[in-house]
Amino acid sequence: MDEPPIAKRLILGDPLASTDSDEHLLPKKRALPIFASDALSSVAYAPQELLLILLTGGLAFLAFAPWVAAAVIVLLTVVVISYRQLIKAYPSGGGDYEVARKNLGEIPGVIVASALLVDYVLTVAVSVASGVDNIISALPGLNPWRVELAVGFVILIVVVNLRGVREASSAFAIPTYIFIGSVGLMIVVGLFQIVTGNPPVASSAQYAVETQSLTQAAVILLVLRAFSSGCSALTGVEAVSNGVQAFRQPKVRNAQTTLAMMGGIAILLFAGLTAIALVSGVHYAENPCDLIGFDCSQPQPSLMAQVSAAVFGMNSIPFFIIQAATAVVLLLAANTAFNGFPLLGSVLARDGYAPKALNTRGDRLVYSNGMIILGLVAIGVLIVYQANLTNLIQLYIIGVFVSFTIGQIGMIRHWMRGIRGIRDLPADARRSASTRTELFGLRKGLVINSLGATMTASVLIIVTITKFTHGAWLVFLAIPVLSFLMVGVHRYYRDVDHEIAMDDHIHFGSTGDVALILVNKLQKPVVKAVDYALAAKHDKTFAVHVSVTKEDAAALEAEWREHRMPIPLKIIESPYRMYASPIAEFVKKYREEHGSAVVTVYLPQYIVGHWWESILHNRRARRIAQQLMLVHGVSITLVPWLLDSSELIYGRRSRALPGDDRAGRATAPEVHRVGRRAIRPAGPPENADAAEPTIPTKP
């Protein structure tokens, strides 16, 4: 096995064999922090965004908060139950995309995939920005470095994920469970303080809010906008359905259990945190200067920071534990996207809607190309929006509710198809106990997903209305553009497959076999190429020199005769200093005169060990090869010449002159290193043809 570069091994670890993939499947205790970190961490910013929007209308609007929160909880419950049905029906890991494509057709499937990919990018951006917000709440001096911190955390998460699923789950499990435990403890302590008559008081409870009078229509719109922001608590639910194949056996049951655990914990944390925030009087404004009495030159403490300070006391040990755990889990929430995006990308690549590179596993058995693309795009979004959570949140959840709605409609179609199939059975078969049980399950799924489709479609309409003018229009632009590109990629792959498909009308009419060795100067790499061409025993073999100046051509001809080279040298004039075009014209004329011969062009090429060496060589061989590959009847053979620096890669230095073995000259055996193994090449065969032409060296 070839060893990867040392830097790559240090960062990512040693490569894993494909046969080890089953060992890296996830048990439920590791799958929960991997797939649920997004949904669980949303309780850190969903209540905050909910209160932020309501406070735009004034303190009196906080009376709507319990009802808005209750609506979010009901919706989350319905969506979790709906996705348990989806996992059972489609366990292959395609999630909403697979459901939509199989039940509604190509275009709905592509729209769902585009919406999910956009949402995964925004999940990374929003989660990291929120995590940085919480860090700055505890350490305000870091505020000038907000964007740099966000970009650094994305890079760190990418590196951890590139090391593999097992390493990522181990790294992320402890912070996630600490977050669940610490926030759960804070909620219990806060509720106990409320029950015992000593309710916590937030630091912002003393601040009033500057507002303007609102019409009745504006009030309704404000409440709906608060609901849409609170619905960010639902993000990440779909990740489990997209990652079923990452679970250990039994995959479906483990995925369903993990989804139920995630939903239950998210509901409890969201409800408890919202309740304590309302009781303690947390006031969090979209514009901090709207808080009367607050020094808006300082960053506004997050809702989580205010609640933990109210319950445990500012700068207490539990306060810092909760802030640290919240910041870490918010950063790790991006990890949900780093599992969902590559898995969905691999499914799209498998179906021909994305580049095939997305379906290739890296050294650590993860879809590393998808992870790198996600990281780069998320970094770009964070830089453009300056890691501002309030601005980023306006783009969020649009994509996920598009996929929710279309996926639920697809599931309705799935259940109805099953019900129609049972109705078409003979009467005796319909009356059997197993059929009645199956019909009951189909009808139950239909009811659940019909409710889910109705609610998610309603929320999608609300979210669209309330967020469109606040920046969400960009998402509605990105989804069609990405869908159009996916359809274009699919059409391209389809056309290529049609073009190269095998048929019985292919005829093989090539006659003759000619080898051309391109020569610039007579040097060892050229001699090696000549030796290779002679060993291949072509019908005709000759060297070709593209002459830019007559002096160089004359010097080469003289040197060619002096060293008694065993093949003829042909000179092609090129007054305009082109190389590939004269050779292509030469090949064309040769085939016209001698028939449709197969022409093999040998190109010597340097192999170097340092990156900077490639800059110092003109890489003409590759450029010529790329152009000659367009010439009909031409095949290219690159003949590598390993410079001494290449031992950094291949572990070899000394070499004999090409042709020494075939000429019978004794040379010291070379040792080729492949990974950790040393391989000595075998000597010449005993029955070598003594009459075979050899390449003499200068006496």
From TrEMBL:
Where is this protein found?
Answer: Membrane
* Topology with respect to the bilayer: Multi-pass membrane protein
- Where would you find the membrane-spanning parts of this chain? 50-83, 110-132, 144-162, 174-195, 215-237, 258-278, 320-344, 365-387, 393-412, 446-465, 471-493
What's in the keyword line of the UniProt record? Membrane, Transmembrane, Transmembrane helix
Q: Does the keyword Transmembrane apply?
A: yes
* Primary location class: membrane
Region (Disordered), start-end ranges: 658-699
Which Pfam family is one of this chain's hits?
AA_permease_2
Keyword Membrane assigned to the entry: answer is yes
According to UniProt, the name of this protein is: APC family permease
